[in-house]
Amino acid sequence: MKNNTWQLQEAKSKFSQLVEDAMNKEPQIVTKHGDxxxxxxxxxxYIKITKPQTDLVKFLRESPLAKVTLEITRGxxxxxxxxx
Length: 84
Prior knowledge:
This protein has a domain at 5-61: YefM-like fold. The chain is of the alpha+beta class. The chain has helices spanning 8-13, 15-24, 43-50, 56-61; strands spanning 5-7, 28-32, 35-40. Helix content is 36%, strand content 17%. The chain is built from 4 helices and 3 strands, in the order βααββαα. Strands 1-2-3 form a 3-stranded mixed beta sheet. β2 and β3 (35-40) form a beta hairpin.
């Protein structure tokens, strides 16, 4: 097996080492019944892969729909009667 791959039983018994390797080396793969099950990675690496590439305001400004004007009107009708 690759140097960063752990069988589940070994990962459980050496969890501290698994975490250290994930923090200081590279993401660690844990297998279950020979199949890849999960990846343990450092928090910094997690932030890198989950952080959006742009912020929401920039995304909306650069959207192809940014120049579309919407005419939003609200009906002047009174709400329907309900019995309580």
